[in-house]
Amino acid sequence: MFLKYMLPVFILVVSSLFAAYRYEHPACQEGVDSTVQNGWPGSFDVRIEKIPESCAFFAAVAGANYRISSKQTGENAWRQIATVHHDDPLDVPIDHVVVVNKDVAYVFWHNIYAVTTDRAQTWTIWSAEKDLVDWKRPEDRYPHWADIEKIDLRRDGSGTMYLDRNDKSLDLARKLSTKDYGKSWTPQ
């Protein structure tokens, strides 16, 4: 008897919630919330765009996608390099899009590092999830992730990547070094 009366009430409540959600998000469109952009005059531009997840039913806990893209001077269309997802809709710090000179630029966000040494014609992508193979053990259900905390890159192409690890108890490298602007990284 209880189920006979509660089922219609439950259906009515769920339908009302769904209708209210669709009213607030009629087209469920996701748009660019903010952009961090840098470039070299007469050469290229590079940017990271924050696109919050607004179509999630519980938008209060939605994260954001971050689109990394570049374009040559004189071009109208941006070319996508990578997309990074983060569970929290964080703002992108301005120092995460760096132009070193007319040929070299790098971008980093969350666990992705992208670098160009040929005026944004080609990009090399480094991913902590894919490229830190020593951080994955067969018995682990999830790999030990790391966010890129900071990049110190010198004009000669040498530099250091500092990682913020999720499991600080493990004996894993916190710093990586490069001699080729970050096309390759080795643990220190």
Description:
By secondary structure, the protein is mainly beta. The protein has one domain (30-187). The chain has 2 helices and 12 strands. It has helices at 2-24, 128-131; strands at 34-40, 44-52, 64-72, 79-86, 97-99, 105-109, 112-116, 124-127, 146-153, 159-165, 175-178, 186-187. A 4-stranded antiparallel beta sheet has the order 1-2-3-4, with no helix packed on it. Strands 5-6-7-8 form a 4-stranded antiparallel beta sheet. A hairpin with a 5-residue loop joins strand 9 (146-153) and strand 10 (159-165). The chain starts with a helix and ends with a strand. The mean pLDDT is 80.
Supply database-style keywords.
single chain; 188 residues; mainly beta; four-stranded antiparallel β-sheet; 12 strands
Low-confidence stretches: none
Fraction of residues in β-strands: 35-45%
Mean pLDDT score, rounded?
80
- Spell the H/E element sequence: HEEEEEEEEHEEEE
Q: Which strand order spans the largest sheet, edge to edge or round the barrel?
A: 1-2-3-4
Report the sheet with the most strands, covering strand number, pairing sense and barrel closure: 4 strands, antiparallel
Structural domain count = 1
Radius of gyration: 22 Å
In percent, how helical is the residue content? 10-25%
The DSSP helix count reads 2
Q: Which structural class do the helices and strands define?
A: mainly beta
Instruction: Give the CA-based shape.
Output: flat
The tally of strands reads 12
Distance between the termini: 69 Å
